[in-house]
Amino acid sequence: MQFAKHLRDPVKQGTITTSVRIWIKPRVKVGGKYRLEAGYIVVDGLRQLDWGEISPAMAKKSGFNNVDDLLKTAKHGSGENVYLIDFHYIEDDDYADEFENEKPDKKSDTRRVKKQT
């Protein structure tokens, strides 16, 4: 999972723990770990929403001033499905070093590959 530059520090500090994404299909899975700078985003929850469920409170919790700002960032590409992702950030540690997520391929949303040592 990638984040706009202005959101990265609040994500790493734990101030932002949710993200709204508009995708064709989910690109993350619950329990998945995704590299963000010196640590990882760990997905705690994933829920599909209706467009009408995107609220001003949800936008604020995701680090945006309002729904319009959130949608400007979240809506890119041909996706039409709205997903709410709950996550937490962890610093790089021994456990996090064991796995690296690769980009999703056509057969699965994500793959977890053990690092070769």
Structure description:
This protein has 4 helices and 6 strands. The protein has one domain (5-93): Roll (Archaeosine Trna-guanine Transglycosylase, Chain: A, domain 4), CATH 2.30.130. Residues 102-117 have low confidence and may be disordered. It is globular, with a radius of gyration of 14 Å. It has a 4-stranded antiparallel sheet with strand order 1-4-3-2. The protein has a two-stranded antiparallel ribbon with strand order 5-6. By secondary structure, the protein is of the alpha+beta class. The protein has helices at residues 5-13, 56-61, 67-74, 94-97; strands at 18-23, 33-36, 39-49, 81-91, 99-102, 111-114.
Widest sheet, order of strands: 1-4-3-2
- Mean of residue pLDDT values: 84
Overall SS class: alpha+beta
Low-confidence runs of at least 5 consecutive residues: 102-117
* The CATH H-level homologous superfamily: Hypothetical protein
Strand content: 25-35%
Supply the CATH architecture. Roll
How many alpha or pi helices?
Answer: 4
H/E topology pattern? HEEEHHEHEE
Over the alpha carbons, how many angstroms does the gyration radius reach? 14 Å
* Cα end-to-end separation: 25 Å
Helix share bin: 10-25%
Number of strands: 6
Largest sheet: 4 strands, antiparallel
- Please tell me the total number of domains: 1
The global form is: globular
CATH topology: Archaeosine Trna-guanine Transglycosylase, Chain: A, domain 4
